Automatic annotation (TrEMBL):
Reactions catalysed: ATP + protein L-histidine = ADP + protein N-phospho-L-histidine
Modified sites of kind 4-aspartylphosphate: 55
UniProt keyword list: Coiled coil, Kinase, Phosphoprotein, Transferase, Two-component regulatory system
E.C. no: 2.7.13.3
Protein name: histidine kinase
SUPFAM superfamilies attached to this UniProt entry: ATPase domain of HSP90 chaperone/DNA topoisomerase II/histidine kinase (SSF55874), CheY-like (SSF52172), Homodimeric domain of signal transducing histidine kinase (SSF47384)
Coiled coil is among the record's keywords: yes
GO function terms (MF aspect): phosphorelay sensor kinase activity
Residue span(s) of domain Histidine kinase: 174-391
Residues of the Response regulatory domain: 5-120
Signal peptide start and end residues: none
Residues forming coiled coils: 118-170
Length: 391
């Protein structure tokens, strides 16, 4: 048993003396014996104690319970209550002061030693726990402050990114629109050259050849700018679904004429049209992007003089398209990246492209609430199937 500095607060002198002798036999140091609460507080003011043995019923204005409340608040010393009563009323009075232990008089030395040890152990553990709680609270405060600062920095960074994205979108839109006018002029001039080449001219063949190259190059550049403009609008959250009535036959003809106009590899498109309604209601621009990009890709990646099959049908309010080619196909390891912007498979070789077409198709179908699926095998070709709700 370790030695403790103990204050005894007991108004019965005989009980106090017996308690003192019992404690001193166990090598404890008694710093004083008080018969009132007031005297106990005076003694603690003069010399600190490790533990207080407190009689509940004391003479004077301060009984044992009130004195213990002051000791708890001012000195934070463990208190062991001494009482000749163990009734419920007494226990209810002392429980609010959170005593370290409670001893019933008369007590024996063994019981007293055990109670004191438990009281000291309880006090130390409570103080350790309080210390840990304080440290945890401090860490929580510090971490909260760090998170607050980090959140402020993140908010600033996100705002800066939003501003940069807006600026980027404006630049892309302005620059792309700026290119449109001269490209239109170049295309018109190339078409005029084609007309002149039809007349008798010593360089008729060369004029026709170079005019065709100019026209195809302008169309390719124009398609690229259209793609850039498309994603400029998408990134600026300006993509809208604008359905209107359109003649389906005329629409299909326009798509086929455009995709076959610049064909250089001799690929033919075989078209199979099912029972199509004369008119549908949908977003013509988005529909055009879907079918034009899918057909252009199928033609572009087909073998020379090959064939692309284009099936179009209508069923239960859904426009269903199937575009099948027998070209280079897509490696299985790369198929998960197919709709990523600027992605191009390793096996495309010298075939030119921006890698934006399928990204545009995917985005358009998302806006129209449509679906797309594909199957592909290297060297055997690729098949895309789209299903688009229309009215």
């Amino acid at each position: 048993m370790f030695s403790l500095k103990i204050l005894i607060v007991e108004d019965d002198s005989v009980s106090a003396l017996l308690l003192q002798r019992a404690l001193e036999k166990n090598n404890h140091q008694i710093i004083g014996v008080a018969d009132t609460g007031e005297k106990a507080l005076e003694l603690l003011e003069q010399q600190p104690a490790d533990i207080v043995m407190m009689d509940i019923n004391l003479a004077g204005d301060l009984d044992g319970i009130k004195t213990t409340e002051i000791i708890n608040e001012k000195y934070d010393i463990p208190v062991v209550y001494l009482s000749a009563s163990s009734d419920a009323e007494t226990l209810n009075k002392v429980v609010g002061t959170n005593p370290s232990a409670y001893v019933i008089k008369p007590f024996n030395i063994r019981e007293l030693n055990m109670v004191i040890e438990l009281a000291i152990f309880k006090d130390r553990k409570e103080k350790e726990l309080q210390k840990l709680n304080n440290e945890l609270e401090e860490k929580v405060k510090l971490r909260t402050a760090e998170l607050y600062e980090a959140n402020k920095e993140l908010t600033k960074a996100l705002e800066k990114e939003r501003e940069i994205n807006e600026l980027k979108s404006r630049i892309v839109l302005n620059v792309s629109h700026g290119f449109k006018t001269p490209l239109t002029s170049i295309l018109s001039s190339a078409q005029l050259l084609q007309m002149y080449a039809e007349k008798d001219h010593p360089f008729k063949q060369k004029i026709s050849k170079h005019a065709f190259k100019i026209e195809n190059s302008v169309r390719a550049l124009n398609n690229l700018l259209t793609s850039v403009l498309f994603f400029g609008k998408a990134d600026a959250n300006q993509m809208e679904y604008k359905p209107k009535k359109l003649f389906l036959g005329a629409f299909v003809k326009e798509v086929l004429d455009t995709t076959q106009a610049g064909v250089e590899n001799g690929v033919k498109v075989k078209t199979n049209l099912g029972k199509l309604p004369k008119t549908i209601t949908s977003d013509q621009d988005l529909l055009y992007q879907v079918f034009e990009n899918l057909l252009s890709n199928a033609i572009k990646y087909s073998k020379d003089n090959g064939e692309v099959i284009f099936n179009l049908d209508y069923e239960d309010g859904m426009l269903k398209g199937k575009i099948q080619d027998f070209g280079i196909g897509i490696p299985k390891s790369e198929q998960s990246q197919l709709y990523d912007r600027f992605f191009r498979a390793r096996n495309v070789g010298i075939v030119e492209g921006s890698g934006l077409g399928l990204s545009i198709v995917k985005k358009c179908l998302e806006v129209m609430k449509g679906e797309i699926n594909f199957t592909s095998e290297v060297g055997k070709g690729t098949t895309f199937e789209v299903s688009i709700p229309v009215k």
